[in-house]
């Protein structure tokens, strides 16, 4: 892959933050085939801890130039700490000052700045529709909404009460319309890291783009159960075992609406910049889908801002480039493949780039779908009141950190912490839920509180 990105990951590997993780290709015709050498990395203590240690390393190296702000009460996060959307520490208001600088505000009324340049990296149409509403951000919002399209991804976290004891860690799945990726999270952590599983196995399954779009659009309420059944059935057929006998149950299923970018900039700038407003935007959509693409776009953005401070002319094509946005498949260069769940620098004869998805979501599609449910950003209220950051009733008003659950939620806390802690090597930044449990409130809940999933 990219030499800069590879060098960064190797430096983190040398510090013990991550490790090379063997993967392969799984198909009905050929079974499992290993890819050597291992093409990528996994966090030695889980992916959340990897990100936290990366930030910590950057702060240690360049702390004199940085002022870090985050949505947790204290840094570094404690084991089990969440990064809640509902935290009043999240910055969501951006104010353009008369002198051209920016001041940022969180829900507690705390301000940060002023800053010469504001940079954003989220691209979900829901988020940009809500948060890029003032006069200074409107053009960026409209430009992204007019051009950026996504294909969704459905993923599920599943626990098998009886271990499968398969001979591989993870696999790209080819030749099956229901499944694109399968990974054993027990084996994701480093060799010397304790993983509390109590004899169980924790797996992640991801569906390809076509399945994800059609399943959710056909039945937005039943996609979770359908995905669980399809994933287990497909994986059973691929590995030659009746996996239902291993007592699987779904911890969580997700529909990543903005999971895969389908269009990209009509330039090679790698990021966007509004010179009039000193507003920059970056993300994997500006380069190619995947972690490497996101990192490269961030690098382009950082170099652009650094160039401004030195009086260097802005890169060509960074300031609202004209022309139709092409399919992101144009970014496939030698050594890369575009699969149904992302871009990867990987070589295997059975891994071939997919055609552009027949269906992708524009901002208008997103608005049409979520408006009928009075969702966040489309008629509903963004934040639920009287809940803790994970949506459990009984938390402090406004979602303040430290709210205590009551009733049946309190009874579920121990099990939930156990599941999540084991799935991330003891460090939990996500909420887990057994199949059939009450679902936490989400952003697309209507204001009166009834779920619209």
Describe it for me?
There is one protein chain. β14 (272-274) and β15 form a beta hairpin. The protein is built from 9 helices and 17 strands. The strands form 5 sheets. Strands 3-2-10-11-12-9-13 form a 7-stranded mixed sheet, sandwiched between helices. A 3-stranded antiparallel sheet has the order 5-6-7, with no helix packed on it. By secondary structure, the protein is of the alpha+beta class. The longest helix has 19 residues, at 291-309. The chain has helices at residues 3-14, 47-62, 125-131, 138-147, 209-218, 223-239, 291-309, 363-371, 407-423; strands spanning 18-20, 24-27, 31-34, 41-43, 91-96, 102-106, 111-115, 118-120, 150-160, 170-173, 181-184, 201-206, 248-261, 272-274, 279-281, 336-339, 342-345.
Task: Chart the SSEs and their pairings.
Layout: H1 3-14, E1 18-20, E2 24-27, E3 31-34, E4 41-43, H2 47-62, E5 91-96, E6 102-106, E7 111-115, E8 118-120, H3 125-131, H4 138-147, E9 150-160, E10 170-173, E11 181-184, E12 201-206, H5 209-218, H6 223-239, E13 248-261, E14 272-274, E15 279-281, H7 291-309, E16 336-339, E17 342-345, H8 363-371, H9 407-423
Parallel strand pairs: 2-10, 8-15
Antiparallel strand pairs: 1-4, 2-3, 5-6, 6-7, 9-12, 9-13, 10-11, 11-12, 14-15, 16-17
Short précis:
The protein is an alpha+beta fold.
- Uncertain stretches of 5 or more adjacent residues: 382-453
Spatial separation of the terminal alpha carbons: 38 Å
Helix residue percentage? 25-40%
| Shape summary | globular
Question: Any idea what the radius of gyration is?
Answer: 22 Å
Beta-strand portion reads: 15-25%
Strand order of the largest sheet: 3-2-10-11-12-9-13
Question: Kindly state the mean pLDDT as a whole number?
Answer: 80
Total strand segments:
17
Element order: H for helix, E for strand: HEEEEHEEEEHHEEEEHHEEEHEEHH
The largest sheet is: 7 strands, mixed
Number of helices: 9
Structural class, from secondary structure content? alpha+beta
């Amino acid at each position: 892959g990219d030499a800069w990105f590879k060098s960064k990951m190797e430096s983190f590997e040398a510090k013990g933050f991550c490790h090379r993780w063997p993967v392969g290709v799984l198909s009905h015709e050929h079974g499992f085939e290993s890819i050597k050498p291992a093409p990528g990395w996994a966090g030695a203590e889980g992916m959340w801890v990897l990100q936290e240690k990366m930030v910590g390393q950057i702060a240690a190296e360049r702390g004199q130039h940085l002022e870090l702000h985050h949505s947790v009460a204290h840094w570094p996060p404690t084991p089990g700490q969440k990064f809640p959307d509902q935290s009043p520490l999240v910055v969501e208001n951006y104010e353009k000052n008369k002198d051209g600088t920016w001041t940022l505000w969180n829900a507690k009324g705390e301000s940060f700045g002023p800053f010469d340049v504001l940079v954003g990296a989220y691209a979900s149409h829901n988020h940009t529709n809500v948060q890029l509403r003032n006069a200074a951000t409107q053009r960026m919002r409209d430009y992204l909404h007019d051009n950026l399209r996504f294909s969704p991804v459905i993923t599920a976290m599943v626990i098998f009460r009886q271990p499968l004891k398969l001979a591989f860690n993870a696999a790209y799945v080819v030749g099956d319309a229901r499944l694109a990726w399968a990974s054993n999270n027990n084996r994701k952590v480093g060799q010397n890291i304790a993983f509390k599983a109590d004899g169980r196995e924790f797996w992640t399954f991801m569906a390809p783009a076509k399945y994800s779009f059609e399943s959710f659009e056909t039945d937005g309420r039943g996609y979770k159960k359908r995905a669980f059944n399809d994933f287990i059935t497909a994986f059973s057929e691929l590995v030659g075992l009746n996996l239902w006998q291993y007592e699987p149950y779904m911890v969580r299923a997700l529909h990543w609406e903005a999971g895969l970018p389908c269009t990209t900039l009509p330039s090679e700038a790698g990021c966007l910049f509004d010179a009039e407003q000193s507003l920059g935007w970056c993300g994997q959509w500006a380069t190619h889908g995947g972690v490497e693409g996101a990192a490269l776009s961030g690098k382009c953005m950082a170099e652009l801002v650094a160039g401004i401070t030195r009086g260097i002319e802005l890169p060509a094509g960074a300031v609202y480039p004209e022309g139709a946005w092409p399919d992101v498949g144009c970014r496939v260069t030698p050594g890369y493949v575009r699969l149904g769940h992302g871009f990867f620098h990987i070589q295997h004869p059975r891994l071939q780039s997919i055609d552009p998805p027949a269906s992708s979501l524009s901002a208008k599609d997103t608005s049409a779908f979520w408006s009928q449910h009075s969702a966040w950003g489309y008629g509903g209220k963004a934040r639920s009141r009287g809940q803790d950051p994970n949506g459990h009733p009984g938390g402090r008003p406004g979602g303040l950190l430290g709210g205590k659950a009551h009733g049946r939620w309190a009874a579920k806390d121990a099990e939930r912490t156990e599941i999540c802690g084991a799935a991330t090597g003891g460090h939990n930044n996500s909420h887990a839920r057994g199949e059939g449990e009450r679902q936490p409130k989400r952003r697309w809940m209507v204001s009166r509180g009834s779920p619209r999933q």
